Amino acid sequence: MPRTLALAAVALAALTSTAAAKRMPPPPPGPVTITSTSRPLTDHLAAHEAALIACAKRERGAVLKATVLVRWDADGTTGALRVGGSTARFGRCATAALRGQIPGVSGRASARAKLVIDRKRLGGAPRPDDGTAALAGCQVDSDCTIYFRTSACVPTDPIAVATSQLDRARALFPPKHIECAMGGPQYERLRRQNEGRWTASCVAARCELREHAIDPRDPLDGLGKP
């Protein structure tokens, strides 16, 4: 084939492909819309979209709106984290899901984001699963335990798994160890305040995690006083 004809054939194929692409409808929007000026926070929320969808499926109403406020340390470990503006149950569930490590940060900072979850679109969304579905089968509450994926001054980033699946959980989610520079009464206060914060129970043949409010009272108040 002469060179001119070959070039013409390539150009025609490119035009045909472009025209076909223009005729294709754009993909439908997903159920979760994230609005934030912080790229690390946006990426963190997007990475946990499945967990946010799982939290939203427990709620009522067509649309859930929430605000995420978070501070993180230089290594990306989340500090103060609050999800508000929707139901209290969704806020607790989403807060627990988002705690952990924010990658791609270069120092301490804080950020906020707005979440809109369209529950009407959840039916067509993929089944939310962060890799823990095969770890959570149970029959009674005693089958369930808590596996903490991060070890710091207090254990964080918990998931509920079946006791018989602990070895598999360790293989799928190797624990992250963060050195704790805290000691003395300050550490003891933090440790005691976090005791009993998380429990796991068997709900509909699946281990589920529950977060309980922390008593704001200092457990060491009054110690050493006459």
Task: List the main descriptive attributes of the protein structure presented here.
three-stranded mixed β-sheet, 226 residues, alpha+beta, disordered C terminus, 30% helix, 6 helices, 9 strands
Q: What this model shows, in words?
A:
- The protein is of the alpha+beta class and about 230 residues long.
- It has six helices and nine strands.
- It has a four-stranded antiparallel β-sheet with strand order 1-4-2-3. A three-stranded mixed β-sheet has the order 6-5-7.
- The radius of gyration is 23 Å and the shape is globular.
- The model is unreliable at about 125-130 and about 220-225 (pLDDT under 50).
Set down the secondary structure blueprint.
Layout: H1 3-23, E1 32-35, H2 39-47, H3 49-56, E2 63-72, E3 78-84, H4 88-98, E4 109-118, E5 144-151, E6 156-162, H5 166-172, E7 176-177, H6 184-194, E8 198-203, E9 206-211
Helix pairs in contact: 3-4
Beta strand %: 25-35%
Provide mean pLDDT, rounded. Answer: 78
Q: What distance lies between the first and last C-alpha atoms, to the nearest angstrom?
A: 102 Å
Q: From the structure provided, what is the oligomeric state, counting identical versus distinct chains?
A: single chain
Please provide the ordered H/E string of secondary-structure elements.
HEHHEEHEEEHEHEE
Instruction: Identify the strand order in the major beta sheet.
Output: 1-4-2-3
Query: Which descriptor suits the 3D outline?
Result: globular
Main beta-sheet annotation: 4 strands, antiparallel
Which structural class do the helices and strands define?
alpha+beta
Helix content: 25-40%
Total count of helical runs of at least 4 residues: 6
